[in-house]
Structures are given as C-alpha cells and as structure tokens.
C-alpha cells in the first residue's frame, strides 16, 4: 500500500512509471516516462525512457528521450538531420 512504509517490486528496466529506478523517493533515481512533456508515445527500455512520437510541431530529440521544437542535428557527429514528419 502506498504510504504504509511497505515496498513494491517493480521492473525498473521496463516500468513506464519507474524507469531506471524509483520515482518520488529521496533521492529519486528513476523517471516517469509517461510525464515527459509533449510526448505522445513513450517506452522504458533497459532502464531508459524512449520517446517515439511527439505532439503538434514537436520533434523527438536526437537522443530519443524528449520532445523539442524544430529540427535537430545528429549528436553523434553525423551529417543527418532528424525530423518527425506528419502523415
């Protein structure tokens, strides 16, 4: 039960609301992927949030963990530009 001082087992490698660790503890070691601003489709894979779709004119970031405005360049030094196109 929440608030009763007991613990709940979660899969922090794949849990959407406790990705990478516990959320809300002190210190908080995880992330709630479902709370990423502007994200429409998210997942938790190997303890990291992954954004696959963003709302409106937002674009998935080059690292795939947030939504940003406009066009972004490849952080790994490539010449490609990542842009989400509307269908």
In short:
It contains no helices and six strands.
DSSP summary: helix tally: 0
* Widest sheet: strand ordering: 1-2
Number of DSSP strands? Answer: 6
Report low-confidence residues grouped into runs of 5 or more: 78-87
Radius of gyration: 15 Å
Order of helices and strands: EEEEEE
Q: Alpha-carbon distance between the termini? A: 44 Å
Query: Strand fraction band?
Result: 25-35%
Shape: elongated
Structural class: mainly beta
- Which assembly state applies to the chains in this document? single chain
> What's the main sheet like?
2 strands, antiparallel
Mean pLDDT, all residues: 78
Give the helix proportion (percent range): under 10%
Task: Explain this structure.
This is Protein CPL1-like domain-containing protein. The structure is a single chain. With 87 residues, the chain is mainly β. 0% of the residues lie in helices and 28% in strands. The model is unreliable at 78-87 (pLDDT under 50).
What's the arrangement of secondary structure elements?
Layout: E1 39-45, E2 48-54, E3 58-60, E4 67-69, E5 72-73, E6 81-82
Antiparallel strand pairs: 1-2, 3-4, 5-6
Annotation keywords:
87 residues; mainly beta; two-stranded antiparallel ribbon; PriA/CPL1_fungi; CPL1-like
């Amino acid at each position: 039960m929440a608030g009763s001082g007991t613990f709940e087992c979660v899969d922090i490698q794949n849990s959407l609301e406790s990705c990478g660790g516990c959320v809300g503890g002190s210190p908080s070691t995880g992330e709630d992927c479902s709370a990423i601003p502007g994200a429409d489709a998210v997942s938790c894979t190997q303890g990291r949030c992954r954004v696959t779709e963003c709302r409106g004119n937002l674009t998935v970031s080059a690292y795939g963990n947030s939504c940003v405005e406009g066009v972004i360049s490849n952080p790994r030094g490539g010449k490609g530009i990542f842009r989400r196109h509307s269908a």
